[in-house]
Amino acid sequence: METGIVLKGIGGYYYVRVGDTVYECRLRGKFRKLQQTALVGDEVKITSLNREQGVIEEILPRRNALIRPPIANVDQALLVFAAANPDPNRLLIDRLLVQVSAEGIHPLLVINKGDLDPEGAQRLTALYRAAGFTTLITSAVTGQGLPELKQHLATRVSVICGPSGAGKSSLINALAPGLSLKTGEVSDKIGRGRHTTRHVELLTVGEGWLADTPGFSSLSLHNVNSKELAHFYPDFLPYMQCRFPGCMHRAEPDCGVRLAVEQGLIDQTRYHNYLELLEEVLEQERRY
Ligand SMILES: Nc1nc2c(ncn2[C@@H]2O[C@H](COP(=O)(O)OP(=O)(O)OP(=O)(O)O)[C@@H](O)[C@H]2O)c(=O)[nH]1
Ligand SMILES: [Zn+2]
């Protein structure tokens, strides 16, 4: 048996990449009885019937599984924001960083459209690098940062997410030439792009795999609780020496995080967005 990765599934057929070959596979009958199906991203063991077809004999244990898009074993999420047009929404950046980290997925903050505002892009990436995140400036138009982005994709399964119009489809097209995803023009009137991307497939990009469908469309922080929220802030961690063990870093006395904000050691906006997300999580907990 050979081990491969499921790149896509259509109507009961799974396309499994083993080395340089893609096999069209069906699931062994036992999976139907167990009501199990394979997910894109699954590592599977197959027996080949010939050089093009095979049978999935075993689905290896999943490290994680996203619901939208349905993909297993996601290692990394590219959080794509535009340097301008549309302007980056700091609250959405922080929200996605928390959401992704809480799933155990490594976030890579990509500031695209670097050509439109090079200085703004530098400022933003410097801020988030200082906060402990991996960042990259790209441009789907000039090609800036694309070789580096490819390196970040190597040997992993990545999904792309971010707001409409940030250039997600453009980046996917630039990384996987030959594929032509539709890209939407940003309407200047409303400043938002159209949602044009649809089906789910893992694209082979260099040595890695990239989902062609954007993820994390649900914006609720259902996977985080109020006690652990601050732990997804690497920039808070060194200062989380507060008087109260359960400190949520709001109005508690002798809070190390608040002190660090006052001393300019933690970015103000990061902290304000934290408070906003904390309120949201607390409200969620009150309701359930
Ligand atoms: N100047 C510039 N324009 C870009 C860049 N990347 C994408 N665009 C343009 O921005 C617009 C939106 O790009 P898309 O790739 O459709 O954005 P998206 O994030 O996939 O948007 P949705 O499908 O709505 O989620 C298009 O007109 C692109 O041509 C870039 O790096 N620089
Ligand atoms: Zn505190």
TrEMBL record:
Species of the source: Carboxydocella sporoproducens DSM 16521
Annotated binding of GTP, by residue: N112, K113, G114, D115, G162, P163, S164, G165, A166, G167, K168, S169, S170
This protein's record includes keyword Cytoplasm: yes
Name used for this protein in its record: Small ribosomal subunit biogenesis GTPase RsgA
Record-level GO BP terms: ribosomal small subunit biogenesis
Gene that this polypeptide is encoded by: rsgA
InterPro entries xref list: G_CP_dom, NA-bd_OB-fold, P-loop_NTPase, Ribosome_biogen_GTPase_RsgA, RsgA_GTPase_dom, RsgA_N
Function of the molecule: One of several proteins that assist in the late maturation steps of the functional core of the 30S ribosomal subunit. Helps release RbfA from mature subunits. May play a role in the assembly of ribosomal proteins into the subunit. Circularly permuted GTPase that catalyzes slow GTP hydrolysis, GTPase activity is stimulated by the 30S ribosomal subunit.
Named cofactor requirement(s): Zn(2+)
